[in-house]
Structure formats: structure tokens, C-alpha cells
């Protein structure tokens, strides 16, 4: 709980997620209440601010509450005046890979395939269809807390192999092999993260796992493929069970921010007809290498196979 009575959070689902009501994100109020907003975000993991008719520069300033904003590595996606902002669109935009129209579909945590994965991600809804294009969130922290102690003890000892371009089928339309060149392949080696991570601010433990194909997860280090796949599927089914999921139904000008260090999310744009335009501004902040729950398991590192 925060001591700041201006930032009032109302729960939007059973275990996490809150709407901050009657708060207009102006540069002055961001300055004054940034700390309280950050603490509220740590408490609730996903925050929603409705009806924010704000310029791009103010949204960029909002991002600084949650860490150091990162410029998108794809220059074409960047906002022309605010380089820390990029555009999400379900339309055919010039110069863009058509796969980007549905990017974010499938459960994931942003940049989990990097040695330093994402911290906060936030979106500002510029054009929102009357229906559809919802974003789903899943509370991986509460899901871990609910597991039996013996199971937790075992999971804390494991590490997960990730690689951006990993795919069991290189011909698969989702395979990222097709979209990157030799230099980019060198930049995306296989890495491993601890399966159970400790949040750098709250100290709470969470499951850091994504589905195999969509989430760039090669497998659990040291397990046979079948056992690894079964464990990943079991954990994802648990984390994304109804009790831990919040469905955000967008209204125009919503601002939504989430903590990739403890929640998974998924777009639903594959189910949205392209004649319904959906455009959002996006900002992400720089994260930290993943801290393990058990020190002896070690931080994020390059895989010996890399
Ligand atoms: O478009 C969405 O609903 C979410 C997209 C996403 O995964 C992201 O912005 O990181
Ligand atoms: Fe994402």
C-alpha cells in the first residue's frame, strides 16, 4: 500500500491488476506521484489508467517512472519525435514485416530470450476497435505461490534454455529464422535463465517460463525432451488457468503498464479482423539479468551450447 492518497488502485481481477481511477497523466503529476505509481505497480503488477488524452512526449515521460526506457532495435517502428516510443499496428504498414500485425500473440514475457530480459512494458491505445484485440495477462507469481512446497523446492533448482530464433520447424510460418540475417543471428545466441526468479524490488519468487515455440524456450536444461516439454506445458497451463488471468478490454486512450518480471501476457490480434484498426504506442524499460531464487542456481548466462 502507498501513502499517497492521489493514487487510488481498484483491483480488476482476483490476484492482481488494478485500475488507477481519476488520475490524469500530466508531466507535473507524473513528477509528483511517480514514486507512488511505481509502488502501486509493484503491488498490483498491471496498472490501467483510462481516458489519457496525452501527447506522445507525456507517455514517454510516464515510462521513466518504471526504469530506463529502451529504444526499439527496429528503427522503422520508432516514433519520429520520441525515439523511446514505437508503434504497434494490426494494419499493413509500409516497410514492416507482415508478421508484426499480430506480434505478441501467444503467452510470453517481453525479451525473455535476452540475457537482460524486459522489465516494464506499457501501451497507449490510440485507435481501438469497438470489440476485440484484448490483451491477456497471467499472474505467474501467485501461480508459483500456490504450488505445494515440495514442488517449489524442485522447480527452484532448474534452469531454462532460451533462444530467439529457436523453432522445431524452420519452415514454420512463425519461425524467426526467416526474418533475420547472419549478423542478427550472431546477436541472438542461446542463453539460460533460472526457472524460479526473485523479483529485484519485492523479493518475491515467480515462475519465469513461456510456452516452447512462441516463447523461444528450447527446454529445461538437463531434462529429456519429453519430460521437459511435459513440465513446461504443465506450468503454463497452471499459470494461465482462469484464476490467474486478467483480460484487458481496451477503450480508446487507455494506458496499461505491466511488470514482465512477474506476469505473462498475450495479444489476441490473430482473432481480430484487419478491417478493425488497432494502433497503440509502446514503451519498454531496461531490465536486469534474472536473479535466481536459490543463489547456487546462478543468474542469466550464455548457454554452453551457444
Ligand atoms: O498487442 C498486444 O495486445 C500486446 C502486444 C505485446 O505483446 C507487447 O506489446 O509486448
Ligand atoms: Fe509482449
Sheet with the most strands? 8 strands, mixed
Order of helices and strands: EEHEHEEEEHHEHEEEEHEEEEE
Helix-strand makeup class: alpha+beta
Distance between the termini: 43 Å
DSSP summary: helix tally: 6
Describe the overall structure.
The mean pLDDT is 93. The protein is globular, with a radius of gyration of 19 Å. With 306 residues, it is of the alpha+beta class. The strands form four sheets. Strands 1, 2, 3, 4, 5, 6, 14 and 16 form an eight-stranded mixed sheet that branches. 19% of the residues lie in helices and 23% in strands.
Short recap of the structure:
The chain has helices at residues 27-44, 56-63, 140-145, 149-155, 182-186, 225-239, and strands spanning 9-11, 18-20, 46-49, 69-70, 86-89, 120-127, 135-139, 159-162, 191-194, 196-198, 205-207, 217-220, 245-248, 255-259, 263-267, 279-285, 301-302.
How is the topology of this model organized?
Layout: E1 9-11, E2 18-20, H1 27-44, E3 46-49, H2 56-63, E4 69-70, E5 86-89, E6 120-127, E7 135-139, H3 140-145, H4 149-155, E8 159-162, H5 182-186, E9 191-194, E10 196-198, E11 205-207, E12 217-220, H6 225-239, E13 245-248, E14 255-259, E15 263-267, E16 279-285, E17 301-302
Parallel strand pairs: 2-3
Antiparallel strand pairs: 1-2, 3-14, 4-16, 5-16, 6-14, 6-16, 7-13, 7-15, 8-9, 8-12, 9-17, 10-11
The site of fe (ii) ion (FE2) has 4 residues, from loops.
Question: What features would you highlight for this structure?
Answer:
306 residues; alpha+beta; eight-stranded mixed β-sheet; four-stranded antiparallel β-sheet; binds 2-oxoglutaric acid; binds fe (ii) ion
